[in-house]
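Please, structure for the following, as tokens.
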Amino acid sequence: MTLDANHTEKSELHLRNKHRSRYNFQQLCYTCKELLPHVFTNKFGEKTIDFANPESVIVLNKALLKQFYDIHSWDIPAGYLCPPIPGRADYIHYVADLLASFNNNKIPRGKSIKILDVGVGANCIYPIIGLKEYNWDFVGSDIDFEATISAKKIIDADKKLKGRIDIRLQKDKKRFFENILDKEELIDACICNPPFHASSKEAKDAAKKKWEKLKKSERPENLLNFGGQNNELWVKGGEETFVREMAKESQLFGKNCFWFTTLVAKKANLASIYRMLHSLNPVEVKTITMAQGQKESRIVAWTFLSETEQQDWIQKRWKATK
């Protein structure tokens, strides 16, 4: 069976993103034989998979992780979120740029850099990419016990991940940093991909529309999310409330973290989030725009460290990476 590659570049993705080319199914199937039965030729004469089939999407992720990040044993439990790896990689690369902008444009690398992923999920994708791309250590937190078990299994199955990613259960669903970070624990950045929807019904309606749209086209531009537990998809008040509450608590840990960051998918939520942030008197707030296909998202970042504290932080934690 011959599988043709299509190398049309996704120019909207970050320049260091390994997924700027369209999926090379010939190479992916060679790397991961499990993907081969899922690949077919669509009406445009292109090799693809059925993106409406959750199993196919999961196997595609396995192939991508194996080919680009040398991860040979990855899986998620049924019903959990299967993330789009190109978009996850973009977030990591933009955070690397953010850190570099305070380090003479040199990305801090190595085990001395620690990142907190709030809501790591069952898939553990952000820590995998961050470790593989920049050799960072990670703490991954989640309120879902089964998700933490899944993430730990992924880590335990790969000796290169063991000891580098620490998964912690957040037992209080209203907390983000408390119970996760020790009082003296320092992290160089916090990342978060918050639940988007404000209710279970809203999440289900959005999923229904996504499925209907996908079934009308055999040529999707992006790998879509499938599955997802309630806490992964929605929270009371939606993304806006989640980020506002996260920002509020971050002030209590303002000296523990250089840069707090979060994704904000809905542009209309920015004004409310900015108002909350400015009420907390951070030293600086930044917004980084990301574009993926026809979707636009952004990273909102803030720090409570003064310029003197920032320089002291860099000297103590990043000096070895200069």
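The first strand starts at residue 39 and ends at 41. The chain is about 35% helix and 15% strand.
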